[in-house]
């Protein structure tokens, strides 16, 4: 799976990754203490746990982010492929995620045909979850089922725009993606790896 190629002459704790020009060294939980300013270049979340790093460049990458495939298909757009980009293609240096609506400047999945952009973590949201806030299963919906395409989360009580949400088909309970990020139990993943891209980028 994914984009990481381990060179034969290197140890298993060192990889080459398409997003960085230098070899990356694996640092385990016990050997690495992160500060709040040290962010994973993939997901832009604080670099903690087992990570790959380039000490000379102050570059960090979670092991999970290092294994994201370079190409996926997704139920959101079954007709096209999404390509993993290491940085936004736009002059502003960021992108608007079409799943959660938030701005990102790390790795993204990009559809060249449609211009759709997804945070890498949004791309792997499960198709259905259980959540402490509701007693039924919540299903992932790619658009609010309302005429004005807005939705009010029954967790945060704030109104959202035309983005993905989790919804209970039985009760009409709605939850924004960000409301469910914590304490959600996934049942089914929602990305599909393309085996033809399970090798490193040139």
Which secondary structure elements does this structure contain, and how are they paired or packed?
Elements lengths: L13 E2 L8 E4 L23 E4 L4 E4 H4 L4 E4 L2 E9 L9 E2 L6 E2 L3 E3 L6 E3 L8 E4 L2 E8 L9 E2 L6 E2 L4 E3 L6 E3 L7 E5 L3 E2 L9
Antiparallel strand pairs: 1-2, 2-3, 3-4, 5-6, 5-18, 6-9, 7-8, 9-10, 11-12, 11-17, 12-15, 13-14, 15-16
Structure write-up:
Helix content is 2%, strand content 33%. The chain has a five-stranded antiparallel sheet, with no helix packed on it. A five-stranded antiparallel sheet has the order 16-15-12-11-17, with no helix packed on it. Strands 1-2-3-4 form a four-stranded antiparallel sheet. It has one helix and 18 strands. The protein has one helix spanning 63-66, and strands at residues 14-15, 24-27, 51-54, 59-62, 71-74, 77-85, 95-96, 103-104, 108-110, 117-119, 128-131, 134-141, 151-152, 159-160, 165-167, 174-176, 184-188, 192-193. It has three domains: 14-66, no CATH class; 69-123, Wheat Germ Agglutinin (Isolectin 2), domain 1 (2-Layer Sandwich); 125-188. It is mainly β and 202 residues long.
**β content, as a range?**
25-35%
Helical content band:
under 10%
Largest sheet: 5 strands, antiparallel
Please state the average pLDDT score: 81
* Total E-strand runs: 18
Q: Helix and strand string, N-terminal first?
A: EEEEHEEEEEEEEEEEEEE
Strand order of the largest sheet: 10-9-6-5-18
Shape: globular
Low-confidence stretches: 1-10, 183-202
Give the termini separation: 16 Å
Structural class: mainly beta
**Tally of domains:** 3
- Rg of Cα set: 18 Å
Number of distinct helices: 1
């Amino acid at each position: 799976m994914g984009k990481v190629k381990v060179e034969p002459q290197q140890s298993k704790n060192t990889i080459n990754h398409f997003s960085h020009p230098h070899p990356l060294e694996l640092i385990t939980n016990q050997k690495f203490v992160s500060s709040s300013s040290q962010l994973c270049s993939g997901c832009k979340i604080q670099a903690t746990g087992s990570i790959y790093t380039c000490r000379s460049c102050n570059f960090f990458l979670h092991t999970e982010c290092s294994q994201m495939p370079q190409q996926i298909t997704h139920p959101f757009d079954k007709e096209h492929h999404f390509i993993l980009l290491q940085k936004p293609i736009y002059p502003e240096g960021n992108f608007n995620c079409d799943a959660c609506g938030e701005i990102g400047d790390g790795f993204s999945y990009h559809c060249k045909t449609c211009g759709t952009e997804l945070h890498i973590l949004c791309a792997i949201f499960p198709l259905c979850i259980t959540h402490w806030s509701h007693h039924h299963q919540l299903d992932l919906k790619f658009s609010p089922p309302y005429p004005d395409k807005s939705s009010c989360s029954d967790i945060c009580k704030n109104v959202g725009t035309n983005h993905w949400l989790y919804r209970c088909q039985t009760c009409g309970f709605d939850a924004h993606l960000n409301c469910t990020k914590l304490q959600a139990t996934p049942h089914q993943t929602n990305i599909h790896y393309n085996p033809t891209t399970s090798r490193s980028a040139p």
